[in-house]
Write a structure and sequence with these properties.
This protein is of the alpha+beta class and about 120 residues long. It has 1 helix and 7 strands. A hairpin with a 2-residue loop joins β3 and β4.
Length: about 120
C-alpha cells in the first residue's frame, strides 16, 4: 500500500551535451520492499516508475526505452499513464533549486571571507 505522496518531476532526454525536458509528471514513492513493480513487472535497475502527466509540445514522438504496460512505444502514447524512465533523466525541480542555491551561498560566503581577509 502506498502511503507517501507523489513527487512532481520533469522527464528529460539526452540532447547533445545537455538534456531536454520532454514532459512533466510525478514519480512514484520509493518502494520500501526493494522489489518495485509496474504493470506486474519488476522495474529495472536504474529506472523509476513515473506518470507522464503532460508531454511537452513536439515531444510526443520520443521513443520509450521500455514499452508501456498497454504497449505504448512513444511518450505521447504514454501520456497520463505510468511508465519506466531512467532515473538519471528524472529531474526534481525543487532539488535542483536547493542545490543551486546552496552552491550560490557557499560561493558568496567564500568570496566574503576572501574580501574580509584582504581588508585586515
Amino acid at each position: 500500500m502506498i502511503s507517501e505522496a507523489f513527487t512532481t518531476c520533469e522527464l528529460h532526454v539526452p540532447d547533445e551535451n545537455a538534456t531536454k525536458k520532454v514532459a512533466i509528471g510525478v514519480v512514484n514513492p520509493i518502494d520500501r520492499t526493494r522489489t518495485p513493480r509496474i504493470h506486474n513487472r519488476l522495474v529495472p535497475a536504474r529506472y523509476a516508475s513515473i506518470s507522464a502527466d503532460r508531454v511537452e509540445k513536439g515531444c510526443g514522438s520520443v521513443p520509450l526505452q521500455i514499452e508501456g504496460g498497454d504497449g505504448e512505444k512513444t511518450l505521447g502514447e504514454a501520456e497520463m499513464t505510468f511508465i519506466c524512465w531512467r532515473k538519471r533523466f528524472i529531474i526534481i525541480p525543487h532539488h535542483r533549486f536547493v542545490r543551486d542555491f546552496t552552491s550560490y551561498i557557499i560561493y558568496y560566503v567564500l568570496s566574503l571571507k576572501k574580501v574580509c581577509s584582504q581588508n585586515l
